[in-house]
Amino acid sequence: MSAPTNYLPPSSSLPPVRSLRSASEQTIATALYNLQAVYCPLRLPTTIFKEKDIGTVQADSGYASEDDDEIISPAPQQHQRRFSITDREDALTAIRADAYEKDFTIRWLTSLISRAYEIPFDSEEAREKAVDDAAFILSSFSDSPTNDEDEALTRDFSFPTSSGEAIGVQINDAPLTGADHTDVGLQSWGASIVFSELMCKEPARFGLDQLAQGASIIELGAGTGLISLTLGKLLPTLELDARITATDYHLAVLENMKANINTNLGGCDATIEAELLDWASPPPALAGSAGMLFAADVVYAPEHAAWLRDCAAHLLAPNGVFWLIVTVRSHGKFEGIPATAETAFTNYESTRRADGKVLKILNKEMLEKKKGVGRGDEHGYMLFQIGWSAA
Q: Which of 199, 277, 273 shows the shortest CA–CA distance to 238?
């Protein structure tokens, strides 16, 4: 099947982000096919369409923010025009060299991935394929030798504290690698943002004001490191010193996390380290070492919840507390995830200690989704307080 010959720049041809939830599977597939034909023609979608079905999608190019109510202005006029170059390769070269078009495409693909579970695909297989194709196109930008560092998104967070000060954290949200679309830790998700803000507003609610000096804090599945970095800047304002370890399993995520730590550590008294951690085999040396554990939006399957439970049981000190925040999604294949987390910590026999205590949920609370924060399919967040208790 040949690539389309009617080339338009992505800003003029991609379906607007605000319409993705109602876009047909065919519309999404065609858009992804056209993008791959432009940016990575050696790897085209495996789904075969009739030649007449492949073409440039004519659509309004308005780009919606996370809020969906705030629409960023359409592309300038020079980016709205139809390319009149007759030679196909010249047309492709012109589009590929256009930094605006590349940036627009990256934002559109990232939005598509974040909204994939709201789009009415005919099957989960089609949905997963669309996510894989979108991630692959993103990877073509991050892997390109001409790629600029500014293709990643720098986000500045400011969380107010009870004292009136603000905790500022700068995070680099890197493009997804495409090699493994489970490396979602390259980007900051709603749960970590909501939880970081809540910790700053009410540190006593989480027992942060009662931490022993030099206490060990471990974040599981830390991703960009937002929660660990927020803690690293918050604790000194409480005149507390702690050793914070931000952990993750994906090497690309760890490298991005280390970069974020280096960006934010200036003037910070807390020690923050980024370490590789496999939940299935946590190091024996860390047994019972953590006075406090944190994890945000890290459970996407029942087995994840079981691994997380057993890892937490290995790491958590006898008097420690584990704060777990799980995203509640209203539909899609992750709809019942909070229940899997709750089930894992109810089936606690595998965590029973010699003194008879088990790791169990001590309290749970529903947190509301904040406007403009998180994905469109996020309904809210379930906060679990977990600790050692008699069965």
A: 199
